[in-house]
């Protein structure tokens, strides 16, 4: 009888779309590409605090960060600061955005892909961990600014921001065990090529080791990634900001394409597998 009841519940569309998932799918993390040099892969996002918007960029290899206050998320207010970021990093091979609408404009895509030949990778909606490099920087930036504000209450937001980024770039980073600014500019100011090459290789290994340790810690209690077949019915989590407490919790979708950690649905949504009801 219990098996029959469970089978009926699993096939009930009302239950699937409205009940909480008591055992949510928590797939293991996949390894991300390891940069070979400073400026190879750059993470970009928009930092929001106290009514201010700041375009931020973090180089994955050196952890060096740049920031530029912007007026709005409109393309015309982002395009020029973004261009300056990319040229200062030496035109990266890959740029990683989150799913911020501001980065999805045809203008920005054209400049990056067609003019600068940069590969764009966009993290899935509601999955900030994919762009975790810059999310971690935002957390650190907020922490530094709070400390600076406590000591200098008369300083403006821009002054606090500039000082906080300076402190970050000149402090020893726990992953690379070095100062981000030294790793970034070491390739241009080093007078001993052999010494720099050894430092570069050592830094790659430290980044790899840190990623492996993070994956091990994160995945110790998680499940293998599930593959979904084209045409398969799935139920995708509806996030709270899109509804009310009595709105359906999940939306019925049909799989169009199975990917590594995401699926593409027939409605052309990219959904991270952790947001699919198990």
Automatic annotation (TrEMBL):
GO molecular function terms attached to this record: nucleic acid binding
SUPFAM superfamilies: Ribonuclease H-like
Cross-referenced PROSITE patterns: INTEGRASE
GO terms under biological process: DNA integration
Ranges where the Integrase catalytic domain occurs: 29-188
Name of this protein: Retrovirus-related Pol polyprotein from transposon gypsy
């Amino acid at each position: 009888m219990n098996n029959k009841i469970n089978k009926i519940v699993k096939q009930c569309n009302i239950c699937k779309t409205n009940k909480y998932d008591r055992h949510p799918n928590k797939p293991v993390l996949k390894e991300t590409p390891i940069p070979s040099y400073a400026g190879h892969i750059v993470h970009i996002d928009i930092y929001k605090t106290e009514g201010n918007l700041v375009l931020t960029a973090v180089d994955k290899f050196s952890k060096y960060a740049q920031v530029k206050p912007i007026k709005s998320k409109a393309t015309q207010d982002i395009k020029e600061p973004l261009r300056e970021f990319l040229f200062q990093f030496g035109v990266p091979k890959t740029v990683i955005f989150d799913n911020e609408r501001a980065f999805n404009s045809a203008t920005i895509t054209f400049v990056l892909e067609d003019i600068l030949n940069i590969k764009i990778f966009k993290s899935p909606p509601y999955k900030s961990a994919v762009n975790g490099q810059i999310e971690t920087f935002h957390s650190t930036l907020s922490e530094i600014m709070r400390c600076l504000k406590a000591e200098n209450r008369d300083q403006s937001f821009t002054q606090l921001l500039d000082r906080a980024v300076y402190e970050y770039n000149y402090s020893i980073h726990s992953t690379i065990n070095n100062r981000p600014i030294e790793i970034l500019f070491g390739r241009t100011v080093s007078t001993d090529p052999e010494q720099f090459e050894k430092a570069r290789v050592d830094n790659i290994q430290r980044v790899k080791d840190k990623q492996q340790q993070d994956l091990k810690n994160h995945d110790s209690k998680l499940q293998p990634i599930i593959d979904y077949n084209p045409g398969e019915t799935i139920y995708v989590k509806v996030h709270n900001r899109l509804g009310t407490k009595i709105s359906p919790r999940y939306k019925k979708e049909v799989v169009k394409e199975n990917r590594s950690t995401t699926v593409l649905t027939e409605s052309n949504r990219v959904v991270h597998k952790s947001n699919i009801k198990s």
